[in-house]
Every structure is written in structure tokens, then in C-alpha cells.
Request: fold
Amino acid sequence: MTARQALLMPVAALALVGLMAAVLFVARSSTRDRDLASIAVPSEEPAVTADDPALRPSGSVCQGTIRRPDPGEPRSYPPLYTRQQTALGIAVVGSAGVDDRAFEEAIATIERFFENNSLEGRLAEEGAYIVIAEAGTALDELPEFACLDPATRDDVHSACGIADRADYPVVAVDELDMAGNRRGPCRGLNILYHELGHLVQGWALPPADYFDVRIFYQAALDAGKYNNAYAARNVNEYFAEATQAYFLHSDPAGEHDRAWLQEYDPDLFELLARVYGD
Reply:
């Protein structure tokens, strides 16, 4: 990932990069903020004002406001996304050229992720959707992210996954990675688990649980864990990387999986087991 936080996170984290949340695997930085008090607590609504210069038309991550669909109102998507499927109320969209295998893997991932919990209800209520970027399309070239300033777009350009909270909670991943192709930006790793973890953290995780995650994160840093790892970047990446390990593995080699997490970070593992189910 990048040294710059191209992420759209709850409230205080939004100020880091405008309205981006969770960009994964660009140029990873070892810089840490060890001050627990500086870690933002999620809020139901992003902090914006009427004169916010980042406000943009609906449908882009720069809009800065959350708008739920009215009852019975269909969710509309940019014209680029001619293919649409739905799993557990969460839409998966992409252009005509996206491989069927990528859609199949995304649907299977959603079903696996929410199999033993009911977290999908909140995300579906908010209009959450997943974009599969066609191979050769950088994430900053997708309609939702084209509004970003040039510096932020540079950060997003090389990312293989992103989660965002703006007009709607949205995730974008790469077709090749979802199809298991090692030519993908994540070398074929299904990073959708990580990005769904960001949505859960931002929209569905109870505040008390998030407080515990903050405590576990600081304790892990104090114990010298996650040295030079992406999970050390901030508490939100710590949670998302653990989510990736809990459901699959967080490294291309497949070593940092659920069993590894249970041994390496047992407190966080127990929280995830309670939140996600076994």
C-alpha cells in the first residue's frame, strides 16, 4: 500500500485523505502511531459541512454524504457496470468483459463471509456493493474514484483492493485476483475478505468491540508484533488484515491463516470468532 492513507474511514480518519478508506498493497509504510488516543472511533455519519469543497454529485466517493435508497427505490450504478448479481442483499457489479469466475468467487466470498453471522443486514440496508474492475483497469479509473485529486489517485492507481464509505459503502477489487490469476495486482489473492472487513468495521461493528480492537492493536505494537507488516499501519488495517487471515490468509504464501492468527494474536482471534462466527 501507499505511504499515504488513501482510505475512506469513519469520521477522524476521513481527514487523512478526503473521503477514501482502506487502500491495500501499494507502497507499505512502517510509520506507526502508537498513541492510542489518536485512533479514531467509528461514527454513524461522516463529518461534512454544507461548504465542504469535496462535495460532488451522487455516485462518487467525493460526495461526502450518505444517502440510503428510498423504500422500493432500485440502486442505480454507473453505465459501465452492465453486469449485476446479488448475494445476501449485497450487489456485485462489473463491466461486460469481467470473467465469470471473478463473479462466482465474489458471490461465494460474500456467502462464506456472512454464513455464521447477520452482519450483512446492515450493509445491505446501506446499499453496499462490490465492483469487480476488469483486468487492466486501475481502481482510480472506475467511475466512483475518478473524482479524486491527482495525488490521491496516484495512491489508488496501484492498489488491488479498496473499501470506501461515501454515498454508499463500496468495495472495489480486481478481476484477475478474484479469478485466482497470479498476474493480478494482489498476485491472485482474494482480497475481498480484507475489504469486507473494512465495511464491517465502518458500518456494523459495535463500538464496544471496536474499542477492544483498539486496545488489542496497541498491545500488539507494544509487544513488538506485526513489525513491518501492513497490519501495523493503523487500527483499521489491523482489523481488516486479521479478517483476511481469519477467513483465508493474509499473505500470498498462505502462511498467515486462521490457525496462525489464533496463536499469534489470540485476543483478536477470539473477538473475530465472536463477531463473525466459527
Summary: Residues 207-276 form one domain. The two ends are 29 Å apart (CA to CA). The chain is about 35% helix and 10% strand.
